Amino acid sequence: MNIGTLKANAEGVHIGRITTLTFSATVALRAFESSNERAPKFDLMALSADRRSWVKIGALWEYSSNETGECFLSGQIDDPSLSAPIPVAMFQQNDGSFNVAWRRSKPKASLDGFGSESEGALPPLTATGDEPASDRSVDSAAATGDGLGESTAPAPKGKTRVSVDA
């Protein structure tokens, strides 16, 4: 789903507007200078409410599609007014502008043996994982201990009190 467009101004800075139902801001891309190959390509800046300064609300990394080889920017918009960061991807158009697309994260696949999330089912919890709980005998002496087993450390020496007559 497209939530905005950024176009280059006279100075070559990409500026535009990103709008969702709960977030609306004038944003710009600021090149991020770094020799680190893992650094973001751009900082995502938003115009402050008083329109006097820019505030960093995210960073964008450059990736390329495995299928088409097309380059795109990917990152998140984060602001205290949001309940969670908004994942976004920006795709450069033929005219040099960027379309901003919101990306919904995919739900994690359920693990084998745990059932579906709607069932809420969990596998039985057993000591060894392969026998029912009723088949295990419980050592009553071990049950009264702290569960850590016997110690090989020497017993602590008793402290002696010295009484002082006043």
TrEMBL record:
Region described as Disordered: spans on this chain: 108-166
Record-linked InterPro entries: DUF736 (IPR007948)
Pfam families per the UniProt record, alphabetical: DUF736
Protein name: DUF736 family protein
Biological source species: Novosphingobium silvae
